[in-house]
Amino acid sequence: IIYIMNGVISGKEEFLNDYMGLVFVSIVIYTYLLNIIFQKGINKYSFELLYENEKNIFDKILKTSLVTLEKMGSQRFYTVIEDLRRFSAFPEVITHTINSLLMLLLCMVYLFTLSIKAGLVVVVLIIVIAAIYFVVMNMMSQKVSNLRTLNEHYYKYVDDVIKGFKGFKLSGNR
Fold first, then answer.
1. Rounded to the nearest 10 degrees, what angle do helices 2-10 and 90-114 cross at?
2. Pseudo-torsion of CA 128, 130, 132, 137, nearest 10°?
3. What is the pTM of this model?
4. Which of 98, 100, 93, 102 is nearest to 43 (CA)?
């Protein structure tokens, strides 16, 4: 697509044919349809993975003794389910990453064929951005761990509120 656009903009004769617009639109539609089909498959796989893992977690909860469940607290199980739901998007993240890296590689090859200096500048910028991203992600890992702990406390309070309303309602019915 980028190659066709560059050829048309630069005014190359072989790209100024009548059928080049049709070829361009066909490639865009083909790419779009492939993306939709692929994303549908990834979503189906992700939801099946989520369903199976949630079922396994609930099976383990049912097999756990009541003393162990009370000792661990229900907030841990809420947090596990929430984490599982977040990780269910992992296949989609991987496919987007692979698509992005492939597109980046192809664009970089094309850019280097146009201008080696411009290609080197873009590579240096990508390395700088990746280094900044790596530093930020390392700084955030501790914060994510703290967030998980806060999440467990939050679900503990939610569980206490639910049990409190349940106890309040039961005492009112007596």
1. 30
2. -170
3. 0.50
4. 93
Q: What is the mean pLDDT of residues 46-74?
A: 80
Residue 100: both structure tokens together: 């992005």
In three-state secondary structure terms, 126 is: helix
**With 70 as the cut, is the pLDDT of residue 172 above it?**
no
The rounded Cα 63 to chain-centroid distance in angstroms is 32
pLDDT of residue 9: 64
CA distance 114 to 109: 9
For residues 32 and 77, the answer to whether their CB atoms sit within 8 Å is: no
b/e per residue, 135-167, with b = 16+ CB within 10 A? eeeeeeeeeeeeeeeeebeebbeeeeeeeeeee
What is the pLDDT confidence band of residue 3, given thresholds at 50, 70 and 90? low
- pLDDT class of 20 with cuts at 50, 70, 90: low
